[in-house]
Design goal:
The protein has 11 helices and 10 strands. The protein has 399 residues and is of the alpha/beta class. The protein has a 10-stranded mixed β-sheet, with helices on both faces.
Length: 399
């Protein structure tokens, strides 16, 4: 409430209200007391200033101790995090993609500390049931680049290691450079490059590619525009099956022992195309893809089961999960959305084995060796790359 001019202590002119008491006359005792107060004012001010200085110093000490305690707590949590993750997660329920990227960062950081060279990160890139490249290709491509910037910016902040994000060709590079111009400027320690080092294409090479049967993409045999600098590690995103031989050549000739991370390239889907007409041979998996170790792997699957009582059809879903250095786990999705571990092993579960573990946990599995089990599962339960083969030179992708 605003004070009226009549009662304002700052009014010096004549007032229409009641006259204040006459204070022009003071007694000798009052004058002595006033002098004493004036004389003691500097000393009181000095004491108050000293008290304020002491409080500020104490507050600074408390803040310093709190920061030191927080740093120690963060270090303790980091150490405990690796130890706890090494045993696997009984329940996994990330709140957001930010949490998934942080967990992927932790796994990559542990892999770097252990000297791993070829690593894989795989999780559903697009929210929803069908989170694959086929469902929304442009969204899938853009989100993967954003995830890579999030993960490897964190790697740079915590370890100081710089990263080059590699896209398959010049057209994708130019599009990503335009779409993620601001993100690339804000992401410390991350730069964008192409898998073959070529960012532009001359008219001559363009016409030669079109009429030479090479398509619109730049190819590795052409002259490179730019080298790969002094990056400490690389991350490749948005590959197709025909790009896999280019990646193999890159690892042999340009990687120089530095780590390479495959992020959301759906390598299992690309493996299925190997050996088909105009695609690379299956031997590419045996000699190269088998060397790639999954450090963060979350592959969700949805199934249905028919029964002879109501409701007759039961829908269930789950995931194959791995968070390095933890073992492989089979998860069943609950009604709350949480993934609960029902089986784990040091070796990777095949899709058929994971489905069987889910059925056993739900109490829906058929009796072993029964006719119904054979009719449901069929003669062949594994894909060709999941089967153990003498041609497979490495088992890193399984462990």
């Amino acid at each position: 409430r605003r004070a009226s001019p009549t009662h304002s202590p700052f009014v010096t002119g004549p007032s229409t209200g009641p006259s204040p008491p006459d204070r022009t006359r003071t007694s000798p005792a009052m004058q002595t007391t006033a002098c004493a107060r004036v004389a003691s004012a500097p000393a009181s001010a000095a004491r108050r200033s000293s008290q304020r200085l002491g409080k500020a110093t104490a507050s600074a000490r408390v803040a310093t101790r709190a920061r030191a305690a927080d740093n120690a707590q963060v270090k303790t949590q980091t150490t405990q995090s690796r130890e706890s993750r090494a045993e696997g997660r009984p329940v996994y329920s990330p709140d957001s993609y930010q949490d998934i990227c942080f967990h992927a960062y932790q796994s990559v950081a542990d892999g770097l500390a252990d000297g791993l060279q070829l690593m894989e990160i795989e999780f559903p890139a697009v929210p929803g049931e069908d989170a694959s490249y086929k469902a929304a290709s442009d969204v899938y491509i853009d989100l993967n680049i954003q995830y890579a910037l999030t993960v490897f910016s964190k790697i740079y902040k915590e370890t100081g290691k710089t990263c080059e994000l590699l896209v398959p060709d010049g057209p994708e590079y130019r599009r990503a450079k335009k779409v993620f111009a601001n993100s690339l400027e804000l992401s410390e320690g991350c730069v964008l490059n192409t898998l073959d080092g070529q960012k532009t294409e001359s008219v001559t090479s363009f016409i030669g590619n079109v009429f030479g049967g090479k398509g619109l993409r730049t190819r590795e045999e052409e002259t490179e525009d730019e080298g790969f600098g002094n990056a400490d590690l690389f991350c490749v995103v948005n590959l197709s099956c025909v790009d896999l031989p280019v990646v193999e050549t890159f690892v042999k000739t340009k990687l120089d022992g530095r780590p390479l991370v495959f992020l959301n390239n759906e390598l299992d889907t690309l493996r299925a195309d190997l050996g088909l007409f105009s695609f690379p041979e299956k031997d590419l998996h045996y000699r190269f893809l088998s060397k790639i170790k999954p450090v963060y792997y979350l592959r969700t699957r949805a199934y249905s089961r028919t029964i002879n009582v109501s409701p007759f059809v039961i829908n269930y879903s789950g995931a194959i999960f791995r968070e390095y250095p933890a073992p492989w786990q089979v998860m069943v999705k609950q009604n709350t959305g949480e993934l609960v571990c029902v089986a784990e092993d040091e070796d990777r579960f095949t899709l058929g084995e994971a489905k069987e573990e889910m059925l056993i946990a739900l109490g829906l599995a058929d009796e072993d060796g029964s006719t119904m089990q054979f009719l449901r599962s069929g003669y062949k339960t594994n894909t060709w790359w999941e089967e153990e083969c003498d041609q497979e030179k490495f088992d890193d992708w399984r462990t």
